Amino acid sequence: MKGKFTILFILFAHLAISQSKSCFTKCTIDAIQEENIVKHYIFTGSDTSGMNVKKSMITVAPARSIQVRKFDKNCTKPNPQDCYYTKVENIPPVTMNLYTLSDPSITDQYEIKEETITVVKSPAKEVEKEVICEQNRTTALIKKIQEGLIVQGFPIDATGVWDEPTRLSLNAFQKSNKLAYGDMTLESLALLGVE
């Protein structure tokens, strides 16, 4: 008799777990950044005696990415033009030590330089979020998610198949709304209007 109750309890617990609509998993929240504009008064004169100037490291050109055409030295194709490929290279910001004035009323020998500085208000982190359990990710649910993403302007098809374009679109939707991303979180489905 005791064995039958144990078996019934295990079956009931398994049924309750398999019928639950949500589980928890780790998702990522991007860092929250804020851009501030700082105004510098760059001293352009030659004599700093008697003036309150200081050396400041100032970004004179921001970081950027460019596409570069490169030649593959190990290429064995008969036409050398087929051995070129395009690569994205990141160029770091250009900084300089410049004399700056604490107050522009000291002299008229200055120029104004505005520098955009990115401040991290909150670092990126992983958080536990409630998500749809694997066994409840039905074709109908996925189709509703896809339809919600299409309404938001994502160029995907409502096929009911959890494919790479759908996953990337959901991640992009979550990031653009500053939500945790990486899975089917309940908060993102609610924002999409998916019940």
Outline:
The chain is an alpha+beta fold and 195 residues long.
How would you portray this structure in words?
It is a single chain. The model is unreliable at 5-20 (pLDDT under 50). The relative contact order is 0.21. The protein has 195 residues and is an alpha+beta fold. The strands form 4 sheets. A two-stranded antiparallel sheet has the order 1-8. It has a two-stranded antiparallel ribbon with strand order 2-7. It has 4 helices and 8 strands; from the N terminus they run αββββββββααα. It has helices at 2-19, 139-151, 164-176, 186-192, and strands at residues 22-29, 32-43, 53-61, 64-71, 84-91, 94-101, 110-122, 125-132. It is 26% helix and 38% strand. It is flat, with a radius of gyration of 29 Å.
* Total of DSSP H or I helical runs spanning 4+ residues: 4
Report on the biggest sheet: 2 strands, antiparallel
Helix and strand composition category: alpha+beta
Low-confidence stretches: 5-20
Percent helix = 25-40%
Computed over alpha carbons, the radius of gyration is 29 Å
SSE order, one letter for each helix or strand: HEEEEEEEEHHH
Strand content: 35-45%
pLDDT average, as an integer? 85
Spatial order of the strands in the main sheet? 1-8
- Termini distance? 43 Å
DSSP strand tally = 8
The 3D shape can be described as flat
Describe the secondary-structure layout.
Blueprint: H1 2-19, E1 22-29, E2 32-43, E3 53-61, E4 64-71, E5 84-91, E6 94-101, E7 110-122, E8 125-132, H2 139-151, H3 164-176, H4 186-192
Antiparallel strand pairs: 1-8, 2-7, 3-6, 4-5
